[in-house]
Each structure stands twice: as structure tokens, then as C-alpha cells.
Specification:
Methyltransferase, Cobalt-precorrin-4 Transmethylase, Domain 2; elongated; five-stranded mixed beta sheet; Cobalt-precorrin-4 Transmethylase, domain 1; five-stranded parallel beta sheet; single chain; alpha/beta; 10 strands; 3 domains
């Protein structure tokens, strides 16, 4: 919604009347692909539009038919289901596009939340758009936005990064790249999903890269009976989950770097000192260990500074 679409002086009902309604599913000619958001935990969170769509399409394309069956059973929806997941999406897409072009109507759902957001469906949607198929969405629950609003961390800007790498070395490399981006000016709340059995290790890696005092939050089992939101520094959150084993669906957030973050200045200071007595390669290797940034990033900056020093 644009800033002008609903001002403080305009009653919500009046604003809604000025907005054109999307076409009803029955009014769309030809095939149609509908991205349907489903509950992230509490089945009561599904919308009336979502229920209508799931009842009227020809088939529901779902990540796991067993998981979706629970939702459909709760709403007496008898529409056939077909699997669409990471392992078969590429192979199934040409067949589905052909059916859509012939007039089929499919809904795409994930196991929980909004399709495509760290879930399958992107290849199919892209192919449908390219083929001229009508694509629409029925919005609804999303764990990222829910956790962000509950975290107490700055809501804008934010960056969602999916799941961190499963292995520590690759995870730290990814985190270090983000830290380097912060030192280059990135100022954003960062959000990931994480598996409960890896949460403690991931928090430890975050501390190694971003420091123990960075503001953080972990949302667990959001919208469910045992919903929990743990807030504090990274050290606080880590201590909590070291003593209380994490369970269920996890959303992990860290706040932006401090306004007075001197990381970029510190990098240049360390490099200038090291370049007086070391080669560019050795200076970069030495400083990379101090500032905990990728060696390639530090080496590139060391090259720039060495040229400046020669000039």
C-alpha cells in the first residue's frame, strides 16, 4: 500500500472503497496459479479467501502432502493434492505450465506460511510469468514478519537470509561477508530461519563474528501454544538456549550494527600499521584474523591502501 492510499484523515472503510478489488477466481479466464499463504502454526489463522481458493482450484501443489492434509481436513477441503518440492519442481514445471496454459487452476502452498519464502515454488512462478499465465497471491501468515514485529528490533530495513549454512566454517564465511557489508555501510536487522538442533552452534558463530553484545532475538513456535520470544544480547540468548534446549520452528534475528560502529575505520587503521612492515598479502592475512572478515575482503582493501600509501 502506498503512503497516499490511506492517510490519517481517511477512514479505513472509505479508503477500501476506492481500491479496485482483484478479480474473483471464477472471473479469471484461462489457467491461473494462486500462491496461498497458510498458517505458521495455529490453524485458525487461515483466511476465508485462502479457504475459498483451496476449495475451488483443480489441485493444490504442496511441499508435503501429509502436512497440508491436516489443514485441509480441518476445513473439510477435498481438493486433490500434488507434491511440489525442491527435488521435483524443476522436472514438474514444464508439465504444470502446459496444464495451466490449457486452463488448469492450481494453488501453491508451503508446509507453513507464505510460499516461495525459503520454500519451493520460485521456478514454477517464474516459468508461469514467462508463459503468460495469470499469477496471483492470497497473503497471510509469515514467520519472518511475525518474528520481526515481536522482536523489539528495528523493523526497517530488514534482510531475510533463509537458513544459514549447516556447517560452521561455511556459516562463519557467510556471517563475515555480512559483517563486511556492515562495515561498508549496511545497517539492517538480519533474519534467518534455523533448525533447533543447530541453534546453539549458530549463535556461537554469530558471537564470533558480530560480538556478544549485538542485540538479538529468537522466536520459537510462533502462534502456537508454547510460543516463546527470547530477547537480549547474543550472549544472553545463547545462555538461555544452552540451559533450555530449543524445540520447534525457529526464527533468529540480530539487530543492526551500532550507529557509532567504527569497524571500517578500525580495518583501515590495522591495515595501515601492518603495511608498514608486511607485504600486502601478509598484512591482509594478519588483519583478517584480527577483524574477523573474509581474507578476500581484507586483501582487496589492503591493495587499495597500499596504492594510496605509495602515492
Amino acid at each position: 500500500m502506498s503512503e497516499k492510499s490511506c492517510s490519517a484523515e481517511t477512514p479505513l472503510s472509505d479508503a477500501a472503497e476506492t481500491l479496485p478489488a482483484p478479480p474473483a477466481l471464477g472471473q479469471v479466464e484461462g489457467g491461473c496459479l494462486i500462491l496461498v499463504a497458510t498458517p505458521i502454526g495455529n490453524l485458525a489463522d487461515i483466511s476465508e479467501r485462502a479457504i475459498e481458493a483451496l476449495k475451488t482450484v483443480d489441485a493444490i501443489l504442496c511441499e508435503d502432502t501429509r502436512v497440508t492434509a491436516k489443514l485441509l481436513l480441518s476445513r473439510n477441503i477435498a481438493t486433490p493434492t500434488r507434491t511440489l518440492h525442491d527435488h521435483n519442481e524443476q522436472d514438474r514445471t514444464p508439465f504444470l505450465i502446459e496444464k495451466l496454459q490449457q486452463g488448469a487452476r492450481y494453488a501453491v502452498v508451503s508446509d507453513a506460511g507464505t510460499p516461495l519464502v525459503s520454500d519451493p515454488g520460485y521456478r514454477l512462478v517464474r516459468a508461469a510469468i514467462a508463459a503468460g499465465v495469470y499469477v496471483t497471491a492470497i497473503p497471510g501468515p509469515n514467520a519472518v514478519v511475525t518474528a520481526l514485529t515481536l522482536s523489539g528490533l528495528p523493523p526497517l530495513p530488514f534482510m531475510f537470509l533463509g537458513f544459514p549454512a549447516p556447517r560452521s566454517e561455511a556459516r562463519k564465511t557467510g556471517f563475515s561477508t555480512l559483517r563486511a557489508a556492515e562495515q561498508a555501510g549496511l545497517h539492517s536487522t538480519l533474519i534467518w530461519y534455523e533448525a533447533p538442533h543447530r541453534l546453539v552452534e549458530t549463535l556461537e558463530d554469530l558471537i564470533d563474528v558480530f560480538g556478544p553484545e549485538r542485540e538479538a532475538a529468537v522466536g520459537r513456535e510462533l502462534t502456537k501454544r508454547f510460543e516463546e520470544m527470547v530477547r537480549g544480547t547474543l550472549a544472553d540468548v545463547l545462555n538461555h538456549f544452552r540451559t533450555t534446549a530449543p524445540r520447534g520452528e525457529i526464527t533468529l534475528l540480530i539487530g543492526p550494527s551500532a550507529e557509532d560502529d567504527s569497524g571500517a575505520a578500525d580495518l583501515d587503521t590495522h591495515l595501515r600499521e601492518a603495511l608498514h612492515t608486511h607485504s600486502v598479502k601478509d598484512a591482509a592475512a594478519l588483519v583478517a584474523g584480527i577483524v574477523k572478515l573474509p581474507k578476500r575482503t581484507v586483501y582487496a582493501r589492503a591493495l587499495e591502501l597500499s596504492r594510496e600509501l605509495k602515492d
